Amino acid sequence: CEDCGKSLIGECKLHGPLIRAKDRVIPSRARLTLPHYLTLRVLELRAGNQQILGVFAKKVIQKRTQFGPYVGQLSTKLTRYDESRLVLQVLKDGGKYFLDTPNEDCGNWMMFVRLARNQEEQTLVAYQHCGEVYFTTVKPIEPHTELKVWYAADYAKFMEASAVFIKEESDVCPLPPVAKEPVDPWICSSCRSTFATFGLLESHQCIHKDRV
């Protein structure tokens, strides 16, 4: 303690504990590379304080806007696998390597983009060019819309994946069957004529009204 000049184990009983100042939290490399018109949102908080993040647009992003290249470490195997993200590989010097991002300081913001579950929610397409992976918008992206990606057709073949990914939703209930027209005919109360549908009967009644 600098006040009483003693070396103590723990806090000084006379002058109390020291006031601790914490270092400023520095964003990771991946978060610092996020373009100004994009934002990260926490979609889910899992066990161990693990955040599931998504990338969202803050303004309209035009179709055919290219992002990249994807930053990652070349590796023969993945050290970190996330089922909500695309697995990416590239050809380098005749070899096929994974773009591995074991943590946020080894990649850029593109590592946060989640995969599209179907064609309707897909906004980006991933493809390989000159040994790098890029994402390009396939349609205009409106503000507050999440960016989601899937493989381009040729890149899907390279990755041995389907060109269009459709995830089976186990909790989707089948639609109820469409109600059919009643089997019994509709009968006109004026002339006793029969009709297959109520619409035809209604038109027929209008003819009676015109006559009156």
UniProtKB/TrEMBL annotation:
<dbReference type="GO" id="GO:0010468">
    <property type="term" value="P:regulation of gene expression"/>
</dbReference>
<dbReference type="Pfam" id="PF21549">
    <property type="entry name" value="PRDM2_PR"/>
</dbReference>
<dbReference type="InterPro" id="IPR013087">
    <property type="entry name" value="Znf_C2H2_type"/>
</dbReference>
<keyword id="KW-0805">Transcription regulation</keyword>
<keyword id="KW-0804">Transcription</keyword>
<dbReference type="GO" id="GO:0008270">
    <property type="term" value="F:zinc ion binding"/>
</dbReference>
<dbReference type="InterPro" id="IPR001214">
    <property type="entry name" value="SET_dom"/>
</dbReference>
<feature type="domain" description="SET">
    <location>
        <begin position="38"/>
        <end position="152"/>
    </location>
</feature>
<keyword id="KW-0863">Zinc-finger</keyword>
<dbReference type="GO" id="GO:0005634">
    <property type="term" value="C:nucleus"/>
</dbReference>
<dbReference type="InterPro" id="IPR046341">
    <property type="entry name" value="SET_dom_sf"/>
</dbReference>
<dbReference type="InterPro" id="IPR050331">
    <property type="entry name" value="Zinc_finger"/>
</dbReference>
<feature type="domain" description="C2H2-type">
    <location>
        <begin position="186"/>
        <end position="212"/>
    </location>
</feature>
<keyword id="KW-0862">Zinc</keyword>
<keyword id="KW-0479">Metal-binding</keyword>
<protein>
    <submittedName>
        <fullName>PRD15 protein</fullName>
    </submittedName>
</protein>
